[in-house]
Amino acid sequence: MKRFQFNLQAPLKYREGRRDLCRQLLAQILADERACRERCEALENQRRRLLGELREINGDGNVDVDRAASRRFFASHLSAEIGLAQRNCQVVEQQLDVCRQALRKADQDVQSLEKLRDKHLAEFLYRQDRAEAHELEETWAATSLARMSQ
Does residue 61 come out as left (phi exceeding 0), alpha (psi in the -120 to 50 range) or beta? Predict the structure, then answer.
């Protein structure tokens, strides 16, 4: 009995490899996105804590100007870092969108060849069944003919 041989197996393997690479890249970008969000949150929390300290410094009645000035400077520095982190998050989100589109396309490419392979397999199995049925009919006819001639 013949075995099924898909003539486009090499392009299918190539497309599957490309899809797997897209998946790996997507996983890396998702990890980058999570790290970016965590960084933004940490910076925001640090800034809130710093502003709380600044309110405490000014709330006593005795104002420590040097301490308050250093806290304000550090808070403005944190604000700039937060802006930079947010821009980085936007870039990561854009990368994520591009990667998702590439993965969708790569998956469609693989699925199209898989459908073609399934169609060819079904045709192969149909022809195989027909050939076996034809062979069985010939065998039956030959044995019937042999019985009649005896």
Answer: left
pLDDT of residue 1: 67
> What are the per-10-residue average pLDDT scores of the chain (150 residues)?
87 96 97 96 93 79 76 90 95 96 96 95 94 90 79
Tokens of 24: 């790996």
Q: By CB neighbour count within 10 A (0-12 exposed, 13-18 middle, 19+ buried), where does 89 fall? A: middle
pTM for the model stands at 0.73
Q: How far is CA 15 from CA 18, 23, 37, 106, 114, in A?
A: 5, 12, 33, 7, 10
Whole-angstrom Cα distance, residue 95 to residue 35? Answer: 14
Report the pLDDT value the prediction gives residue 60, as an integer from 0 to 100.
Answer: 66
Q: Mapping DSSP to helix (H, G, I), strand (E, B) and coil, where does residue 6 land? A: coil
What does the angle CA 126 – CA 130 – CA 132 come to, to the nearest 5 degrees?
A: 115
CA–CA dist 49, 55 (Å, integer) = 10
Q: How far apart are CA 79 and CA 44, in angstroms?
A: 8
Contact between 18 and 106 (Cβ < 8 Å): yes
